[in-house]
Write a structure and sequence with these properties.
Chain lengths: ~650, ~325
């Protein structure tokens, strides 16, 4: 108790609280911008802590890091674009709720669940302090393989009425993720001779392409976020908070999943949020089915991903072993302030360690409180006309993509996967399943080879491995049984020839990969070949239905595809060209102005205001806070070329 | 004014900030992600280098990770910047790319301008105290597992070369996501050794209390840690000895900073002078020490001379060195 009071005395000093508040506000801002996250925030803030004392420094840093997963809910719910990778599961039901006019309820539930989850994570961290080391040492790579495989079974939950399509989408995501140098042999797998692809396709860009561009295209066609006949929910925020309180056992269970798995280095936020989502989906309660606006589908992942932040500090504090790049930066910050993480820190600096726990708890409280206060104005965004909202949102997506590597090929990646995302959305191939395969398959392969090299096949007899793989098989079996009994399947009349074309394209991808595997060493080929084989088998089962579909001409299909293409080429492609030609400040601004001319909305004043807003935010983030050397705009090169000498 | 004209005028107004690219900044690009030793080194340098460059520019750090820093190295080669405003820190192993990866056309160390190497300290192999492997003899004869990340990293290259040169019995486990993941696996007892660890990490926290330092890996004996045997003393065959020296050469030019080949002579002189002044800057040295960074700097011309020497070694020795790291 003395330690707790000492920690409170250290933290509750006005200047340190102000710094924590600054961190929280900054964390909330970068959580909203797609493509940015806690890692970006830490690189900016750490240099500002050089002259601060350790408690103040970590109040600022953890204040920021604790809340990026709170505000990333805003784009996830409102426009269906996960602000960070950790908000992908929230999109499923949160965005569906926003379309139904329940954005305030979804946001209210998400923030309150984030708050309770974050506090629970901090509490678990505090309770785990004495037993940190054995806890982290408990799990080896075999267990990590089983946890990841268990997370992958969530594909079954994400496939809606088309389980085979969901499976093929996940396998396609896996095949694309296998691009790059393989983890065992180090040989190149379908890199097209590009060093750009040695580390695989850039996942954050693929996420934005698969979710953002199709959702924004759909939003532009719909006219606004909230569908026209949906009734606006008065008092939705209060209702959302009530949902969280009514589902407290779910919130705590999801928080527990987040905190415990967050403590294990190697288990990423994607696995954590989907396991929490899948756990909630098993007991959907009253209300719509999962994926169509069930509030429990918002509460579970939001509680889990905020609780994870507390858990992920455990290996860093206990061993000085960071579980992620963010934690590696924090470890550097510890060193900078003369603190050496490890058992000695827990013993000798107990009040400081407890002050970290308090900071996480308080930051969650303040972050969720601020977001809740802003829920009403934010939820009104659902009523803003799409021609006003979409160009600004797309401009930030473009900036988020380009800042990843400041490489023109980032835009090519965006366009290729946006085209795939648009087609998947139009023809009902699960995009969450695709991204789940994309993120989890490389880990599955890596954990398998590490386990096999370390202990042969004996790891398969570990209790947790048996339990989790058994559970995965049971869950999959039950889901297959349910689908075969209850789900009517998708009628070919709903899909049409475009669906068949996409199916053929994916089959060709699988066949191509299988062919390329023949030239690879066995260790590098085994996983991709297995995945491609499974994919082809699933496609064979689907072949008769796709064959029927290719003879169906859907009314309005050509117009819909044309509209998608216009958005892809004119919108995403045009934005890419403008950013390349005019730079990261003028490019998005010009895009917004030209969009206003093209769409005839908003008026000149509104358009200039929106363009100035985008320029200001871009300048503040990428020039003022985190100065980056962007490639010289083409227009700059042109002027240089015209200048004499 | 018609609406379209108003839009055009607005667009040009908004374009102005983009055209005013600041010439006063120097950017240090890091070929790895945030949080690692390359990133830490760049950030401490960024905090002090500006004081030693003409005009005291603002020095900023940005991360461009990819392909073990080869992605950035390729950008360095292609850069047209002549004013010294862009420098980079890339893998020291790339300096030996013509020997170990002759097909690699992305980076030519003879074209780039080396400005400094931040450390020439030896690398080491370590084992956890609980492993029972506490001598070099036990390391060279025992059957256990050594952890490694990718096959191009020193965590693989060094133990692979030792295994071939001295016919050891250990097994190398590849595919770890990072060196810290290897450390955690050692804590768990899944593996029993890691090679290629540098002084900064070794003197980090209580590492020396928890781990045995088995052997020193460098071209010449450094004896930075008392009682740690020098690996090359165990290799009696002269050709293998020379080949192994070549394999270990990258640690003598570790954490290098380079400028693009296009950099003008004047800008290059400024950068070299700036780094030379930095090397004796008391504030910088104290700051680096505070952040747990172990420095033993080598100036740019000396780094380039070393690289030229390594690349000019006997072709037979180069062939054998390549064979050792396969």
């Amino acid at each position: 108790m003395d330690v707790l009071f000492a920690a409170m005395g250290d933290l509750f000093v006005p200047m340190r609280l102000v710094l924590m508040l600054c961190g929280v506000v900054f964390g909330l801002v970068i959580g909203v911008i797609p493509g940015l996250g806690g890692l970006f925030g830490l690189t900016i803030l750490i240099p500002l802590t050089y002259t601060l004392d350790p408690v103040a420094a970590f109040a600022l840093l953890l204040g920021m890091a604790s809340v990026t997963t709170t505000s990333d809910t805003i784009p996830a719910v409102l426009i269906g674009v996960p602000g960070t990778v950790g908000a992908a599961a929230t999109v499923m039901d949160g965005h569906a709720m926003a379309k139904q006019g329940k954005s305030a309820r979804a946001l209210g539930a998400a923030y309150s669940a984030s708050l309770v989850g974050g506090l629970f994570g901090a509490l678990l961290l505090a309770m785990a302090l004495p037993v940190l080391r054995p806890l982290v040492l408990l799990l080896n790579f075999g267990d990590l393989f089983a946890i990841t495989a268990f997370g992958l079974t969530m594909v079954a939950m994400l496939s809606g009425r088309a389980p085979l399509k969901g499976m093929v989408a996940a396998l396609a995501g896996a095949l694309i993720a296998f691009a790059g140098l393989d983890p065992y042999e180090g040989v190149e797998r379908w890199t097209l001779g590009q060093i750009y692809l040695w580390d695989g396709v850039p996942t954050p860009i693929v996420f934005l392409a698969i979710y953002a561009v199709p959702e924004l295209a759909g939003l532009l066609q719909r006219g606004r976020i909230q569908v026209a006949d949906a009734v606006e929910d008065a008092g939705g925020k209060r209702q959302g908070i009530g949902d969280t309180l009514r589902n407290l056992p779910l919130v705590l269970r999801s928080g527990g999943i987040g905190a415990l798995l967050g403590a294990v280095p190697g288990v990423g936020v994607t696995v954590i949020e989907w396991i929490a989502y899948g756990d909630a989906a098993r007991r959907p309660g009253k209300g719509p089915v999962f994926g169509e606006g069930n509030v429990r589908g918002v509460i579970a992942p939001e509680s889990a991903n905020n609780a994870k932040e507390g858990g992920s500090l455990i290996p860093t504090l206990a061993f000085g072993v960071p579980g992620s790049a963010s934690m590696a930066l924090l470890l550097g910050a510890f060193m900078l302030h003369g603190l050496v993480p490890g058992p000695d820190l827990l013993r000798d600096e107990a009040p400081f360690v407890v002050s970290l726990v308090l900071t996480i708890a308080l930051a969650n409280l303040v972050g969720a409180g601020l977001c809740l206060a802003l829920t009403r104005p934010l939820s009104r965004l659902a009523l803003v006309p799409a021609p006003v909202l979409v160009p600004v949102a797309l401009a930030f997506v473009g900036l988020g993509v380009f800042q990843t590597g400041r490489d023109p090929r980032d835009f090519i990646t965006l366009l290729v996967f946006s085209a795939l995302g648009l087609a998947m959305k139009r023809y009902g191939w699960s995009r969450p399943a695709f991204t789940l395969g994309l993120v989890l398959a490389p880990n599955l392969e890596r954990f398998f080879f590490l386990s096999w090299q370390i202990s042969g096949w004996s790891w398969l007899a570990q209790p947790l491995v048996i339990l989790l793989l058994g559970l995965s098989a049971l869950l999959l079996g039950r889901q297959v049984y349910r689908f075969s009994r209850e789900t009517p399947g998708v009628d070919v009349a709903e899909t049409g020839r475009g669906d068949a074309a996409l199916g053929l394209l994916l089959a060709l991808l699988a066949a191509g990969v299988l062919g390329m595997c023949l030239t690879l060493p066995i260790e590098a080929a085994i996983f991709p070949a297995l995945v491609a084989g499974l994919m082809l088998a699933a496609m064979l089962v689907m072949a008769p239905r796709l064959w029927r579909a290719c003879r169906v001409r859907l009314p309005g299909e050509a117009a819909g595809v044309g509209s998608d293409l216009r958005f892809l080429i004119g919108g995403a492609g045009g934005l890419a060209l403008l950013i390349m030609a005019l730079g990261h400040l003028a490019g998005p601004a010009c895009f917004i102005l030209l969009s206003a001319l093209w769409l005839r909305r908003p008026g000149p004043f509104g358009a200039v205001l929106a363009a100035a807003f985008a320029t200001l935010v871009s300048w503040a983030v990428f020039d003022l806070l985190a100065r980056q050397s962007w490639p010289e705009p083409w227009i700059g090169s042109l002027f240089q070329g015209l200048m004499p000498g | 004014m018609p609406m379209a004209s108003r839009f055009v005028v607005s667009a040009f107004c908004l374009m102005l900030p983009a055209l005013s690219v600041s010439a006063e900044d120097v950017t240090i690009r890091v070929g790895y992600g945030p949080g690692g030793s390359y990133d830490s080194m760049a950030r401490v340098i960024a905090d002090h280098l500006g004081d030693h460059l003409p005009g005291s520019p603002n020095v900023v750090v940005e991360n461009l990770p990819g392909a073990g820093s080869l992605k950035l190295a390729k950008l360095v080669m292609e850069s047209t910047e002549t004013d010294g405003s862009q420098i980079a820190t890339i893998s020291s192993a790339l300096a030996l790319a013509p020997v170990f990866d002759p097909d690699n056309r992305a980076y030519d160390p003879r074209q780039a301008h080396y400005l400094i190497s931040m450390t020439s300290a030896a690398s080491y192999c370590i084992t956890p105290k609980a492993s029972g492997i506490d001598t070099l003899d036990a390391f060279l004869t025992g059957e256990f597992k050594v952890g490694a990340t990718g096959k191009a990293s020193t965590t693989y290259v060094f133990p692979a070369a030792i295994k071939k040169a001295l016919d050891t019995n250990y097994q190398i486990v590849t595919g770890f996501g990072s060196a810290t993941e290897i450390d955690l696996a050692m804590e768990r007892g899944d593996i029993q050794a890691r090679c290629g660890i540098g002084m900064s990490n070794l003197f980090n926290g209580d590492m020396l209390e928890r781990y045995n330092v088995i052997t020193e890996l460098s071209r010449e004996p450094k004896h930075e840690i008392d009682g740690v045997p020098f690996l090359l003393d165990r290799i009696s065959d002269p050709e293998t000895h020379e080949a192994m020296k070549l394999v270990l050469s990258s640690s003598s030019i570790h954490h290098p900073f380079v400028a693009p080949p296009a950099t003008s002579e004047e800008a290059l002189d400024d950068l070299l002078a700036g780094f030379a002044a930095l090397a004796t800057d008391e504030d910088f040295l104290a700051d680096a020490k505070k952040r747990g960074l172990y420095l033993s700097m080598t100036d740019g011309p000396t780094v380039e001379a070393k690289i030229a020497e390594y690349l000019a070694s006997d072709p037979a020795v180069q062939d054998l060195a390549r064979e050792l790291v396969q």
